[in-house]
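User: Hi! Is it possible to get a structure for several chains at once, not just one? Here's what I have:
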Amino acid sequence: MIRRPNSPRSLFLFITACMFVFAFSSCGKTAYPATTVPASLSPTPFSSATPADSGDGPQPAIPETRRLTLEYPRRIKAGVESDVVRLTLEVDDLGNITPTAEVDGNVVEGEVIEIPNLYQTHNVTAEAQFDIAGFEVKPPGTTYQPLKQGEAVTFFWSIRPQDVGKFRGTISLFLNFEDRNSGEQSRSAVSIQFVEIEAVDFFGFSTNFVRTSGVVGSVLGVVVGFPFFDDIVKYFWGRLKKGRKKNSARK
Amino acid sequence: MKKVRLVLAAVILTISISLLLWGYMPNPRETRIQNISPEEMELPTPSSLHIDLEPVA
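Assistant: Yes, the chains can be modeled jointly so their relative placement is included. Here is the combined structure:
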């Protein structure tokens, strides 16, 4: 058997060998240390601005635990009614203020780490948005309110269904931070909640029709039954009298 | 005749009051309460945006 240096078989083996070498070298490159991330792999920040991070000390933090309360109607009558959705970010009733100073437990250096108050270094704004299809929402779009230490912020939306059915929407709450010195802005998502609201009618009849029918029917019922009211009152009066007589006889 | 009229009045009143109750009944509301710790309201840091990749064995 004669082997030719430029035969198709030799060429195939050469290409295969090159592919193996290339593949192994690529695999070796993905084994990064845990802390280093290539720039192309790191996710883009939530905000357009670069987040503030000095790296010198602890980051400023909000020194309080808050409670987010969402109140909305599960069911609403279609046609005439509107209702209110309320989102409140309030300070915890128990007064849970997180410590603003921490002592290092390991006592390596025994230093006190002071966490700067975020309210003193940044302007904090709460941003809320309610998106739902099939409903007329007022105010539409995004609403903003300044968030101050120890104070609650409340967002209200008035909603009115446009049609009957089940509608799903989202209520989002973000916090916007603006550095008082540099003006640097950043944004952080606090909560995104899904809500489901059902718009109903009365077997195809509108709410207005049902209410009007109720009023008219009640009047009609009273008119039709009016001659018997005298009998009904007399009947109950008689029973009451009988009961009293029985009680006095027993005594 | 008197009995029929009485029954008719009772039926009309029952239906009408039911309609009125449905029409003016307040909407059932749902309340969700969620505690938010300070860690959830802190500034976004570059370290929080990193993916900790682990080397493939």
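The first helix of chain B runs from residue 2 to 24. DSSP finds one helix and one strand in chain B.

User: Great, thank you!
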